[in-house]
Amino acid sequence: MLYVANAGDSRCVLCRKDGKALDMSNDHKPEDEIELKRITRAGGHVNIQGRVNGGLNLSRAIGDHCYKANPDLPLEEQMITAVPDVTSVKLEHTDEFLVLACDGIWNVKSSQDVTDFIKGELFEDKNSKLSLICEKLFDICLAPDTMGDGSGCDNMTCIIVQFNPTWLSSLQNIVKDPVVYHDNIKKNVKDFSSVSLVKATVKPNNDLKINNVKRSRTEDNDVTNNVPKHIIKNEPKRQKSI
């Protein structure tokens, strides 16, 4: 089983048999009906550019504590929440790879476009370095200049995980009761996100204001460091380009 927990507008896409792209997450955008209702009920608004109170352009996120400081609302009803959506799918031996990328990619290419590109690169050279495929993907997403539609520039981040078909075939008997396991996964993720939110909102920084958003960013650890080598053929690297 593959489980994906998502909060934000990065997306996970699974390449299935014959190269069909399967979205494993939904982008959380402020203008989406469900997200917009929660934001409005919490006292926020979304402008014409799709930004919450003129600042954040996604509706779920870890951090961004100034959007989560309403003492009269539970954590999941704040303007911005870190509570994720959890999806799952049974992996088949014909599944080829999954790709995780931020909106800098998906604002330019569709899930199927990206899947087709990666599959084509792997077809040309099955031993191609995944990091180089990421770089090529960035190149085709780059704008020729910074003018565009006036909305500015964005970063690009991509991770490709290529499955080992022998390993996938061996998974059939690992999880005997996927329904119970799935329920436990969802409960654990929800509990973890709630605890994290409590810690984040108990002592909000005084210099954070709703209409003047200040955000701190830290470099993520390479999530592939702890992935067993037998799961993937090539160890992918996290790449960024601006």
From TrEMBL:
Record flagged with keyword Chaperone: no
Positions of the PPM-type phosphatase domain: 1-163
Pfam family, one: PP2C
SUPFAM superfamilies for the chain: PP2C-like
EC number per UniProt: 3.1.3.16
Any GO CC annotation of this UniProt entry: nucleoplasm
UniProt similarity note: Belongs to the PP2C family.
Protein name in the entry: protein-serine/threonine phosphatase
